[in-house]
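Review session, final week

We close the course with one last complete record, chosen because it touches almost every idea we covered. It is TlpA family protein disulfide reductase, a protein from Paratissierella segnis with 183 residues. Go through it on your own first, then we will talk.
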Amino acid sequence: MVIILGGCSTKDKDNIDDQILPQEESMNENEKQAGDNNLEDEKPEEDEKFLAPDFTLQNLKGEEVSLSDFKGKYILINFWGTWCKWCDVEMPSLDKLNNENDDLVVLAVNVMEDESKVKEYIENGEYEFEVVLDEEGEVAQVYYVNSFPTSIFVDKEGYLIGGVPAMLEYEQMVEIMDGIRTD
């Protein structure tokens, strides 16, 4: 199983507590108990799934590519930039993983860079995976990407499995994919 890591500072927690506590103080004891009971009813099931937000972006050939185009295959969405040294180190592993797995698509989402620069980078590396351009950074925002590279894993039905906000080595990618396939 893959875990999506995120960061919250203790400062953020204090701000949240400040917003919640005044509401709780104004409740009487019966309202608090009723609220507690409702919270238990609203807990998500452990196996609850979430669809990966679909998106359509242009690839380096000028064609529109949607995430939903790859339904029926596992998808590794990789958010990256040509300037990112860790992305550069990770690219050959992504290409190898993509080429060795017929049931997987690596979808490399370049974030907010010039098409000609991205095209030159991909051609120089001779990478064969699908590359799309998130020119405004909107898809990266939808997926809460705040570091590069970030890899998001999607199952064959289009549900989010998890993500890793860091560079992955080839062996780690294989291990994650093997774990996903056995679930």
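Two points worth writing down before the exam:
Residues 10-41 form one domain.
Residues 1-28, 30-40 have pLDDT under 50 and may be disordered.
Good luck, everyone.
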